[in-house]
Amino acid sequence: MTTLALIDYGSGNLHSAERALRAAAVLAGADIDIEMTGNAETVRSADRIVLPGVGHFADCAESLRACDGMTEALEEAVGQRGAPFLGICVGMQLMATRGLEDGETPGLAWIDGDVDRITPGPDLAVPHMGWNGLEIEQDHPILTGLGDEPHVYFTHSYAMRPQNSDDLAATATYGETITAAIARDNMFGTQFHPEKSQRVGLRLLANFLTWDPV
């Protein structure tokens, strides 16, 4: 049985993410043991890892680093062992070099780039909240089978600006082009919430659960 660690560090829609992952496992026909955990050793040994996140970048970064040994476990599991990783919303943003919300805060530095405030213009509200079309930028296994003109659910005021365009997997247009998903090697991240994105979100999560990045 495949093990999946859904990281509990005091930030994120853990229960809705867990429910969506269980539904996605049924959709994918995958035998997955999903565990919500704040234990670094559990994360270190997990076959797959999901990092959710809701709130401010600085608060989430502080909470993650406050979990004893968690950043080291993530580095070992994801950076060295190559475990498939999915970051959701602020969980994706934490993959960046730094966040510029509430000052400058270091991220995990897995993806070169900053997380900065979106500037959609005077006619569009911030935060960006609600359904938006997804524009696929990269032929990636996690983005297959989403259907024509897929729409997903966003709620955010900040977004990642990756330095390398090769890391950009999907975008959305909200007055400006917003990073909607990033991908590199065994890592994938979504600015939107797949657990709130109904059929499209479940398909994406099912794809993650069966994704073999090797």
Describe the protein's topology.
Elements: E1 2-7, H1 14-28, E2 32-37, H2 40-45, E3 48-51, H3 57-66, H4 70-80, E4 85-88, H5 90-93, E5 96-99, E6 105-106, E7 111-117, E8 128-133, E9 135-136, E10 151-156, E11 158-162, E12 168-173, E13 177-184, E14 187-190, H6 198-210
Parallel strand pairs: 1-2, 1-3, 3-4, 4-14, 5-7
Antiparallel strand pairs: 5-6, 7-11, 8-10, 9-12, 12-13, 13-14
Describe the structure.
The chain contains six helices and 14 strands. The chain is globular, with a radius of gyration of 16 Å. It has an eight-stranded mixed sheet with strand order 2-1-3-4-14-13-12-9. It is α/β, with parallel strands linked by helices.
Look at the helices and sheets and give the structural class: alpha/beta
Biggest pleated sheet: 8 strands, mixed
Q: Give the full name of the CATH homologous superfamily.
A: Class I glutamine amidotransferase (GATase) domain
The H/E string reads EHEHEHHEHEEEEEEEEEEH
